[in-house]
Specification:
Helices cover 40% and strands 18% of the residues. It contains five helices and five strands. Helix 2 runs parallel beside helix 3. The longest helix is centred in the N-terminal third of the chain and has 13 residues. The termini are close together. It binds manganese (II) ion. Manganese (II) ion binds next to loops.
Length: 128
Protein backbone atom coordinates (compact mmCIF):
# COMPACT_ATOMS: atom_id res chain seq x y z
CA UNK A 1 0.00 0.00 0.00
CA UNK A 2 1.27 3.41 -0.93
CA UNK A 3 0.26 7.03 -0.41
CA UNK A 4 -0.29 8.43 -3.89
CA UNK A 5 -0.95 12.08 -4.67
CA UNK A 6 -3.23 12.72 -7.67
CA UNK A 7 -3.21 16.19 -9.27
CA UNK A 8 -6.16 16.24 -11.68
CA UNK A 9 -8.85 18.84 -12.45
CA UNK A 10 -11.34 16.53 -14.18
CA UNK A 11 -13.73 15.14 -11.53
CA UNK A 12 -14.58 11.98 -13.50
CA UNK A 13 -10.92 11.09 -14.02
CA UNK A 14 -10.17 11.84 -10.36
CA UNK A 15 -13.05 9.65 -9.21
CA UNK A 16 -11.91 6.74 -11.36
CA UNK A 17 -8.26 6.92 -10.25
CA UNK A 18 -9.24 7.23 -6.56
CA UNK A 19 -11.65 4.31 -6.86
CA UNK A 20 -9.12 2.03 -8.55
CA UNK A 21 -6.24 2.88 -6.18
CA UNK A 22 -8.43 2.35 -3.09
CA UNK A 23 -9.70 -0.95 -4.51
CA UNK A 24 -6.09 -2.18 -4.53
CA UNK A 25 -5.38 -0.96 -0.99
CA UNK A 26 -3.59 2.29 -1.77
CA UNK A 27 -4.15 5.66 -0.13
CA UNK A 28 -4.93 8.35 -2.74
CA UNK A 29 -4.64 12.06 -1.89
CA UNK A 30 -6.60 14.44 -4.12
CA UNK A 31 -5.61 17.86 -5.47
CA UNK A 32 -7.50 19.61 -8.26
CA UNK A 33 -4.90 22.32 -8.93
CA UNK A 34 -1.14 22.63 -9.11
CA UNK A 35 -1.03 24.91 -6.09
CA UNK A 36 -2.99 22.46 -3.95
CA UNK A 37 -0.90 19.59 -5.29
CA UNK A 38 2.44 21.19 -4.41
CA UNK A 39 1.12 22.03 -0.95
CA UNK A 40 0.01 18.42 -0.37
CA UNK A 41 3.28 17.06 -1.73
CA UNK A 42 5.14 19.06 0.91
CA UNK A 43 2.80 18.21 3.79
CA UNK A 44 1.87 14.57 3.12
CA UNK A 45 5.10 13.00 1.78
CA UNK A 46 3.46 10.88 -0.94
CA UNK A 47 5.37 7.89 -2.34
CA UNK A 48 4.31 8.69 -5.90
CA UNK A 49 2.64 11.61 -7.71
CA UNK A 50 0.23 11.23 -10.63
CA UNK A 51 -0.18 14.52 -12.47
CA UNK A 52 -2.41 15.74 -15.29
CA UNK A 53 -0.65 18.01 -17.79
CA UNK A 54 -3.57 20.29 -18.70
CA UNK A 55 -4.61 22.09 -15.53
CA UNK A 56 -6.02 25.57 -14.98
CA UNK A 57 -3.41 28.02 -13.69
CA UNK A 58 -0.17 26.13 -13.15
CA UNK A 59 0.15 23.35 -15.74
CA UNK A 60 1.74 19.94 -15.27
CA UNK A 61 5.06 20.99 -16.75
CA UNK A 62 5.43 23.80 -14.19
CA UNK A 63 4.45 21.43 -11.38
CA UNK A 64 7.18 19.05 -12.58
CA UNK A 65 9.77 21.83 -12.64
CA UNK A 66 8.91 22.85 -9.09
CA UNK A 67 8.80 19.32 -7.66
CA UNK A 68 12.10 18.41 -9.30
CA UNK A 69 13.72 21.64 -8.04
CA UNK A 70 12.86 20.74 -4.44
CA UNK A 71 15.50 18.62 -2.72
CA UNK A 72 12.93 17.01 -0.42
CA UNK A 73 10.51 16.13 -3.23
CA UNK A 74 12.59 15.46 -6.32
CA UNK A 75 13.07 11.75 -5.56
CA UNK A 76 9.32 11.05 -5.53
CA UNK A 77 8.36 9.30 -8.81
CA UNK A 78 6.32 11.79 -10.85
CA UNK A 79 4.06 10.28 -13.48
CA UNK A 80 2.16 12.26 -16.15
CA UNK A 81 -1.40 11.09 -16.74
CA UNK A 82 -2.63 12.76 -19.86
CA UNK A 83 -4.71 12.48 -23.00
CA UNK A 84 -2.01 14.23 -25.02
CA UNK A 85 -1.31 11.66 -27.70
CA UNK A 86 0.69 13.55 -30.24
CA UNK A 87 4.15 12.38 -31.18
CA UNK A 88 6.66 14.11 -28.94
CA UNK A 89 4.38 14.69 -25.95
CA UNK A 90 5.83 11.75 -24.06
CA UNK A 91 9.33 13.06 -24.75
CA UNK A 92 8.32 16.57 -23.70
CA UNK A 93 6.91 15.25 -20.42
CA UNK A 94 10.04 13.22 -19.70
CA UNK A 95 12.25 16.20 -20.59
CA UNK A 96 10.27 18.37 -18.17
CA UNK A 97 11.12 16.13 -15.24
CA UNK A 98 8.42 13.49 -15.31
CA UNK A 99 9.66 9.99 -14.55
CA UNK A 100 6.95 8.28 -16.58
CA UNK A 101 3.72 8.55 -18.49
CA UNK A 102 0.28 6.89 -18.33
CA UNK A 103 -2.11 7.58 -21.22
CA UNK A 104 -5.75 8.61 -20.90
CA UNK A 105 -8.38 7.37 -21.21
CA UNK A 106 -7.48 5.47 -18.06
CA UNK A 107 -7.74 1.73 -18.60
CA UNK A 108 -9.23 0.20 -15.42
CA UNK A 109 -7.73 -3.17 -16.32
CA UNK A 110 -4.13 -1.94 -16.29
CA UNK A 111 -4.01 1.40 -14.43
CA UNK A 112 -3.06 0.14 -10.96
CA UNK A 113 -0.44 -2.27 -12.26
CA UNK A 114 1.13 0.57 -14.26
CA UNK A 115 1.22 2.72 -11.11
CA UNK A 116 2.68 -0.14 -9.08
CA UNK A 117 5.40 -0.66 -11.69
CA UNK A 118 6.42 2.96 -11.22
CA UNK A 119 6.33 2.52 -7.42
CA UNK A 120 8.86 -0.27 -7.80
CA UNK A 121 11.06 1.16 -10.54
CA UNK A 122 10.77 4.90 -9.85
CA UNK A 123 13.51 6.99 -8.35
CA UNK A 124 12.09 6.76 -4.84
CA UNK A 125 13.95 4.30 -2.64
CA UNK A 126 11.27 4.49 0.04
CA UNK A 127 8.42 3.26 -2.13
CA UNK A 128 6.21 0.59 -0.60
MN1 LIG B 1 -6.95 18.49 -17.03
Amino acid sequence: MARILIIEDNPANMLLMVYLLKAFGHEPLEASSGTAGLDLAQRAAPQLVLCDLQLPGMDGYEIARRLKADNDLKSIPLIAVTAYAMVGDREKALASGFDGYIAKPINPETFVSEVENYLRSGRSSSAA
